[in-house]
């Protein structure tokens, strides 16, 4: 009996095998159109295709369809694509914004000072060719596609793939089916005016949607039996939706694609058009909703998709599953395309000295560091795996523009109104150098000149010259304490303050994190008032200081704050020491002295909308008891720091003086809606002369305190900060307002 059952089982198995062998096996191609943010709908459609069990044999895409399709072809499933795209800040991608920590202190100062930056080569002002160089897009794609970096033929991907780009010089479509996939996807999605063109094999390429936004014919030619198409292109709009110039121009651009789709739709076996007319090509914040529209529309075709799946055999091609790794071993680095910038400079920015084992995060931080220099239009990078190690290939396209004109505006309660005009020139005398001159007009004339030779890993060299001036009313009692001048009957004195500082310094990185400067400096101080009549007939004002000082200075700085003005996370440590060894000694009271100053600041998020900031600061002077011009002066808020003038809420500028101080600040910031903040602050300090002689003089409780309620906004001109402050010691409130980047 058991032999009979065995024979029957064998017959049934053979019959099933024979039927399976005769089963039809249709090849299915998937075409994904371009559409910017509307391309999120592709991911929703892919989820339904997977649920129906359809085997995709070839993928073709254009623009956003190329990016989604290329990632899917490389081995990601729809759920993984959902995670990738919803975690991306597309505002940073489009605008080429980089993490603040990716920039050196010099580059941060630049980024947090100017509102407008325009090329100014050959003394001709021009506009940038695009909003973004596409570097962040390239970095994102390279990071997520490094598992197939050794595959140059896209037909050898887990799912064969090609995408469409446009030769901008000939106006012809280019089929990209070989090369480096992140580069090809970046070219296919290089929307004119938004992203810079991409040079591949001698051809200057832009968005494929210009010539072919739905490559169904090209996909059919690959031997596909059935085509599934997802169309997220704009349709022609009625007159009620054509009210602006941009809408009319978009309509004109859509004439060709809308006409072409009439024929292309008939060549598509399963046509899916999600309901995305309410969204634009930049509606990235609606990504989840747009994905839902794709899923909803695809579910209407679920039975047809299921029927296709029933006509297919199981997938036989081996999938390459992306497997994120913690680190990689870089055995060597090859660099091409660098003419004005040395290998040491480039490796210094990358923070790589091969052979080296580096985390993926640190590797991409290094790429960001190089990008942040703005010296390159494009930084191509590819990891080639050789055994268990990688060779890093860097292909650079240096920026052809070496001069720029930059502008900014600012207002605060110390310097008042200010308009900044900057001229910057790169490659002045040497490779890797940069010269920059700020000229500031307004209520107070100022300037700031920098010349810097960046040597990468080695000691860099810099020269700085700056001139600062302001006029500020201060308490007459403060002047009496600092100088033996009777001011009976006078409450306020108008103080004229001028500072000229010149420095020559060298700079290096310590532990790849800390910036360390050391150099020599010259300082000219002129501090006087015309409020009080001078007893010297040759002088028209009482002069507190008019001396040239010379000496040494040093600074150690670490800055990982994600935002200078409204941080959500990070740490700032800034310490400096100035040693003054000589003076022209206007007041005949000079002796050698040193000034030490330090502060540390920590910011951390509480939930998604609250941020807590804690700051501690302090300083002291060694020697020079008779010279008070570089003592610490506390008070004010929102202006660029000058010498030892320290901000302190609750008091006006230069209200509290001493040769030593300690200060603590606590702040809670509430981002009520994007880029708009409400905050509560409290600061406490002990300030005075010789306070560090006895612990009770500088340890809590605080002698001075101030509290504030503030509003802040991240505007096009820079940060707007408004503070209402109160101090219980003086029982008086102070208002402070600051608009624009500090300079």
User: What is the tally of helical segments?
Assistant: 16
Give a short account of the largest sheet: 17 strands, antiparallel
Total number of strands: 32
Q: Assign a percent range to the helix content.
A: 10-25%
Distance linking N and C termini: 97 Å
Going by helix content, strand content and strand pairing, the class is alpha+beta
Q: β content, as a range?
A: 35-45%
Overall geometry: elongated
Task: Record the SSE blueprint.
Blueprint: H1 2-22, E1 28-32, H2 40-52, E2 58-62, H3 64-73, H4 78-86, H5 90-95, H6 105-111, E3 116-119, H7 135-144, E4 161-167, E5 172-176, H8 181-188, E6 198-200, E7 203-207, H9 216-220, E8 226-230, H10 245-266, E9 270-272, H11 287-299, H12 302-310, E10 327-336, H13 343-350, E11 356-359, H14 360-372, E12 376-386, E13 389-398, E14 403-412, E15 416-426, E16 433-442, E17 446-453, E18 460-475, H15 476-482, E19 492-510, E20 514-529, E21 542-559, E22 570-583, E23 593-606, E24 610-623, E25 632-634, E26 645-646, E27 656-658, E28 660-673, E29 676-688, H16 695-698, E30 704-715, E31 718-727, E32 732-739
Parallel strand pairs: 1-2, 1-8, 2-4, 8-9, 10-13, 25-26
Antiparallel strand pairs: 3-14, 4-5, 4-7, 6-7, 10-11, 12-13, 14-15, 15-16, 16-17, 17-18, 18-19, 19-20, 20-21, 21-22, 22-23, 23-24, 24-28, 25-27, 28-29, 29-30, 30-31, 31-32
Helix pairs in contact: 2-4, 2-11, 3-8, 7-8
Describe the model.
The longest helix has 22 residues, at 245-266. The protein contains 16 helices and 32 strands. It has a 17-stranded antiparallel sheet. Strands 1, 2, 4, 5, 6, 7, 8 and 9 form an eight-stranded mixed sheet that branches. The model is unreliable at 1-7 and 9-22 (pLDDT under 50). The protein is elongated and about 105 Å long. The chain is α+β, with helices and mostly antiparallel strands and 743 residues long. A hairpin with a 6-residue loop joins strand 17 (446-453) and strand 18.
């Amino acid at each position: 009996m058991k032999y009979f059952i065995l024979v029957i089982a064998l017959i049934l198995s053979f019959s099933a095998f024979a039927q399976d062998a005769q089963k039809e096996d249709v090849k299915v191609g998937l075409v994904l159109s371009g559409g910017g943010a509307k391309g999120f709908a592709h991911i929703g459609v892919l989820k339904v295709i997977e649920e129906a069990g359809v085997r995709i044999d070839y993928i073709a895409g254009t623009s956003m369809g190329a990016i989604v399709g290329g990632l899917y072809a490389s081995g990601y499933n729809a759920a993984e694509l959902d995670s990738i795209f919803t975690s991306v800040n597309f505002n940073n991608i489009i605008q080429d914004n980089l993490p603040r920590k990716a920039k050196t202190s010099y580059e941060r100062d630049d980024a947090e000072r100017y509102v407008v930056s325009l090329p100014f080569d050959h003394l001709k002002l021009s506009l940038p060719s695009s909003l973004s160089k596409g570097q962040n897009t390239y970095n994102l794609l390279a990071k997520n596609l490094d598992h197939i970096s050794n595959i140059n033929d896209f037909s050898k991907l887990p799912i064969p793939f090609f995408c469409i780009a446009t030769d901008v010089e000939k106006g012809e479509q280019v089929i990209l089916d070989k090369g480096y996939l992140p580069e090809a996807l970046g070219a296919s999605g290089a929307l004119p005016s938004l992203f810079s063109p991409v040079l591949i094999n001698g051809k200057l390429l832009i968005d494929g949607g210009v010539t072919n936004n739905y490559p169904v014919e090209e996909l059919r030619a690959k031997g596909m039996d059935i085509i599934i198409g997802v169309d997220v292109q704009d349709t022609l709009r009625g007159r009620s939706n054509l009210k602006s110039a941009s809408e009319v121009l978009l309509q004109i651009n859509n004439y060709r694609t809308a006409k072409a789709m009439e024929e292309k739709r008939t060549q598509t076996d399963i046509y899916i058009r999600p309901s995305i007319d309410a969204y634009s090509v930049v509606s990235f914040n609606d990504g989840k909703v747009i994905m839902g529209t794709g899923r909803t529309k695809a579910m209407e075709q679920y039975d047809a998709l299921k029927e296709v799946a029933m006509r297919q055999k199981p997938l036989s091609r081996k999938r390459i599953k992306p497997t994120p790794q913690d680190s990689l071993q870089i055995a060597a680095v090859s660099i091409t395309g660098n003419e004005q910038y040395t290998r040491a400079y480039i490796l210094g920015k990358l923070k790589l000295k091969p052979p080296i084992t580096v985390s993926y995060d640190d590797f991409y931080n290094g790429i960001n560091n190089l990008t942040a220099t703005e010296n390159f239009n494009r930084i191509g990078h590819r990891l080639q795996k050789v055994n268990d190690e990688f060779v890093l290939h860097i292909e650079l396209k240096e920026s052809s523009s070496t001069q720029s004109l930059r502008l900014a505006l600012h207002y605060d309660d110390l310097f008042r109104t200010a308009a900044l005009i900057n001229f910057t020139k790169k490659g002045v005398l040497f490779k890797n150098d940069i010269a920059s001159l700020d000229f500031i007009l307004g209520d107070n004339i100022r300037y700031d000149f920098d010349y810097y030779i960046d040597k990468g890993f080695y000691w860099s060299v810099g020269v700085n010259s700056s001139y600062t001036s302001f006029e500020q009313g201060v308490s007459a009692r403060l002047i009496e304490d600092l100088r033996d001048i009777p001011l009976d009957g006078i409450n306020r004195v108008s103080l004229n303050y001028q500072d000229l500082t010149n420095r020559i310094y060298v700079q290096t990185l310590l532990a790849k994190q800390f910036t360390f400067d050391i150099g020599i400096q010259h300082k000219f101080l002129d501090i006087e008032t015309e409020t009080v009549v001078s007893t010297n007939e040759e002088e028209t004002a009482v002069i507190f200081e008019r001396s040239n000082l010379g000496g040494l200075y040093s600074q150690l700085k670490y800055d990982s704050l994600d935002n200078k003005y409204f941080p959500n996370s990070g740490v700032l440590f800034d310490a400096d020491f100035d040693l003054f060894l000589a003076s022209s000694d206007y007041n005949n009271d000079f002796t050698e002295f040193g000034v030490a100053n330090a502060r540390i600041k920590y910011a951390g998020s509480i939930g998604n909308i609250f941020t807590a900031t804690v700051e501690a600061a302090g300083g002291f002077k060694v020697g020079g008891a008779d010279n008070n011009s570089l003592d610490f002066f506390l008070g004010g808020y929102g202006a660029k720091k000058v010498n030892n003038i320290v901000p302190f809420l609750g008091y006006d500028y230069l209200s509290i003086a001493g040769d030593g101080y300690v200060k603590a600040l606590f702040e809670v910031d509430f981002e009520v809606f994007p880029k708009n903040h409400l905050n509560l602050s409290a600061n406490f300090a002990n300030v005075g002369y010789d306070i560090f002689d006895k612990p009770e003089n500088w340890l809590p409780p605080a002698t001075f305190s101030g509290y504030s309620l503030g509003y802040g906004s991240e505007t096009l001109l820079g940060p707007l900060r408004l503070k209402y402050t109160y101090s219980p010691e003086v029982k008086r409130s102070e208002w402070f307002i600051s608009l624009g980047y500090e300079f």
